[in-house]
Amino acid sequence: VQLQASGGGMVQPGGSLRLSCAASGINFRLNTMAWYRQAPGKQRELVATISSGFSTNYSDSVKERFTITRDNVKRTLYLQMNSLKPEDTAVYFCHRPPTHWGQGTQVTVSS
Fold first, then answer.
1. For a surface tag, which of 2, 18, 72, 102 has the fewest beta carbons within 10 Å of its beta carbon?
2. Model confidence over 23-76: pLDDT tens digits?
3. How many CA atoms lie within 13 A of 20 on its CB side?
4. Residues with Cβ within 8 Å of residue 105, at least 6 apart in sequence
């Protein structure tokens, strides 16, 4: 199983980024997928999940700003992040529960 995350970078507060996670080695369309993040000195936390039936859930801290989607044909998971705040700065990981993690992509929100 490989989960290859990309799309991170540096952006000013209020800006947007879209993360992607290309999956291989799994039957992608049958799996719930998730994004997590880990800020320096903090525990890894759940950001959003999307089920095989496209049901979504978000942490309170990102609701109304972030959108998780999936493209089962491209076997890719996305996270559209809008209205970014400095506290969104973290390494973002895609996750296929319970055991598979991508390598992480850095998101830095700073003026």
1. 2
2. 999 999 999 999 999 999 999 999 999 999 999 999 999 999 999 999 999 999
3. 8
4. 5, 6, 7, 8, 19, 91, 92
Rounded CA separation 93/102 (Å): 6
pLDDT bin (cut points 50, 70, 90) of residue 18 is very high
Contact 84, 16 (CB under 8 A): yes
Report d(CA 53, CA 33) in Å as an integer. 11
Cα 94 from Cα 105, distance rounded (Å): 9
pLDDT score, position 11 = 98
